[in-house]
Specification:
Number of domains: 2
Order of helices and strands: EHEEEEEEEHH
Bound molecules: zinc ion
Number of strands: 8
Shape: elongated
Structural class: alpha+beta
Helix content: 10-25%
Largest sheet: 6 strands, mixed
Length: about 170
């Protein structure tokens, strides 16, 4: 599966907007110490050729598969982001944000990957009501119950751990 966009018409007719809509596959990537997978992204917008550059303007929609920070279950996070990027034939040290291209095709892989990663929330939870894992025995308290934390806190270590985890949730 290729992530390329043919921009031959935009290069041939500078100044004219060419609408496009394409699907882009993004490899799983490590973000915030977690492997994040992405459902195929859809990039829709217009391509504008200007000499040796092509500007893409549009919106990117995808879904990231993350894990709940409390109970570790899978959470699908929808992502929608406006994209405004320039591809250039020649690298320009003054314009480090540009993506390179050759011929008449843009490889959208890096551009889409970068835009998605920037939009990822640092932390996700499956639900605001998620009870998380028991800090003592580790069971998923959404699915099961245990008596570890009953009748106040059994030992100082679990109290400390519970405090730390509550802090993280703010
Ligand atoms: Zn959860
Ligand atoms: Zn427990």
């Amino acid at each position: 599966m290729s992530n390329t966009l043919n921009v031959a018409p935009a290069l041939k007719n500078p100044g004219q907007l060419y609408p496009f809509s394409t699907e882009v596959f993004v490899e799983p990537t490590e973000v915030f110490g977690e492997a994040v997978c992405f459902a195929p992204a859809r990039l829709e917008g217009t391509a504008l050729g200007a000499g040796e550059t092509v500007k893409l303007h549009g919106s990117l929609a995808a879904e990231a598969v993350r894990h709940c920070a409390r109970c570790l279950c899978e959470v699908r996070v929808p992502i929608r982001v406006d994209v405004d990027e320039t591809f250039a034939r020649e690298a320009d040290p003054d314009e480090p944000d540009r993506y390179p291209f050759e011929g008449s095709e843009l490889d959208l892989t890096d551009c889409v990957h970068d835009n998605l990663v920037l939009e990822l929330p640092i932390r996700v939870v499956c639900s605001e009501d998620c009870k998380g894992l028991c800090p003592v025995c580790g069971i998923n308290r959404n699915l099961d119950s245990c008596t570890c934390l009953e009748g106040g806190v059994a030992n100082p270590f679990s109290a400390l751990k519970a405090m730390v985890e509550n802090d993280e949730e703010v």
